[in-house]
Design brief:
This protein has 211 residues and is an alpha+beta fold. It contains 3 helices and 8 strands; from the N terminus they run H-H-E-E-E-E-E-H-E-E-E. This is Late embryogenesis abundant protein LEA-2 subgroup domain-containing protein. Keywords: Membrane, Transmembrane, Transmembrane helix.
Length: 211
């Protein structure tokens, strides 16, 4: 019985003993470095992304190797049927972005409109040069001179328009130095057509008889 009382007294003494404060665990050097790097990454990542986007946009806009572009869009036409005089109006757009190796881009000379290799109309394009960093539009006006479209050719054009809703004609602008070749889209029903890209190359021989 004395042993039981002694055990209870010891138990009461343990319950009344004040608890010692716990010491917080210290971070190791590796954990501290990892936490610091994580904070740096969280705060710097958005800045890096923004700077990268601006840098990419700047490089694209000032690319010294970015070539000039030339495109054509049909403004309207008349007389696609057989035995009907016809005329074609186009707009040639020139975009010369410039750059370290840029030069003037010039368009002008004798113009011709062909379908299936057959000349439909001809005209003259006033020469226009665009300096680096500039842009311009040049009007192309061509007419058949009162001659109608051959019946077989008119039938082919009508068939293409029924099948695709548009007629695609070839437009060439020639100078003694170079040739501009375009594929213009003439939409049926007077709808507005999108611009099509043109190609340029040096002229070696102009004796193909299209003008």
């Amino acid at each position: 019985m004395d042993e039981k009382l002694l055990s209870e007294a010891r138990s009461d003494g343990d319950d009344n003993r004040p608890s010692l404060p716990t010491t917080p665990r210290k971070f190791t050097v590796a954990e501290s470095v990892a936490a610091l790097l994580l904070l740096i990454g969280i705060f710097t990542l958005p800045v890096v992304l923004i700077v990268s986007l601006f840098h990419a946009a700047y490089i694209e806009s000032t690319n010294p190797f970015l070539p000039p572009t030339i495109s054509i869009a049909a403004d309207g036409c008349s007389g696609l049927g057989a035995r009907v005089p016809r005329a074609f109006n186009f707009t040639v757009a020139i975009d010369n972005p410039g750059g370290r190796f840029a030069h003037d881009v010039c368009v002008g000379g004798d113009a011709a409109v062909l379908y299936g290799g057959v000349p439909l109309a001809a005209g003259r394009v006033e020469e226009r040069c665009v300096t680096p960093g500039g842009a311009a539009q040049v009007a192309v006006r061509t007419a058949s001179g009162g001659v109608g479209v051959p019946a077989e050719l008119a039938a082919l054009m009508a068939e293409e328009e029924r099948a695709t809703g548009a007629v695609r004609v070839e437009v060439r602008v020639m100078t003694p130095q170079e040739s501009l070749w375009c594929k213009a889209i003439i939409m049926g029903g007077g709808a507005t057509a999108q611009a099509s890209p043109c190609r340029r190359w040096s002229v070696q021989d102009q004796s193909d008889g299209f003008v």
